[in-house]
Fold:
Amino acid sequence: MKYVARFFDWLNSGIAEGDRLRREAYLAQSSDHCDLEYRMRELERDPSVVHGWW
Structure:
């Protein structure tokens, strides 16, 4: 049972890392400071904005 729990912990951390990388890539595409701030607010309101973007 310990191995199953460790597997799911590993899987969950990989998913979280992928989400973090998608958010960073989305923010890196901003054209200027105003666009970056807009995208940051957009992510705060709705984190699912990035899903499907990549």
About this structure: Residues 2-28 form the longest helix (27 residues). The chain has a mean pLDDT of 89. Residues 3 and 9 are 10 Å apart (CA to CA).
